[in-house]
Specification:
binds zinc ion
Length: 93
């Protein structure tokens, strides 16, 4: 079975499963019963979370054209507290 995408003019896109190679060019919408046409789309591209896409794009962009800074970045804040409170009791150098 393969999943095929159809578009109803009233209800939008929906998926229908058919055996491979047997998908009709038009089916009836399960909601309103009107004729829906088959839609060809890139599979699973819309399911990538936008923050992940932005992070990947930023990482790829930084490899070719990293951001240029005009000032020295500020020093990090004073010592941060450790995540585990038990680490605060460990000896310090
Ligand atoms: Zn419909």
């Amino acid at each position: 079975m393969a999943t095929y995408e159809y578009r109803c003019p009233r209800d939008g896109d929906f998926d229908v499963k058919f055996p491979v190679g047997t998908a009709a060019s038009r089916v009836h919408c399960s909601v309103c019963g009107s004729e829906a046409v088959r839609v060809f789309s890139a599979p699973l591209l819309a399911r990538t979370p936008r923050p992940l896409v932005a992070a990947i794009d930023r990482a790829e962009r930084s490899a070719e054209a990293p951001d240029v800074v005009s000032t020295i970045p500020a020093k990090p804040r004073a010592r941060r507290l450790p995540v585990n409170p038990a680490h605060a009791r460990l000896p310090r150098p």
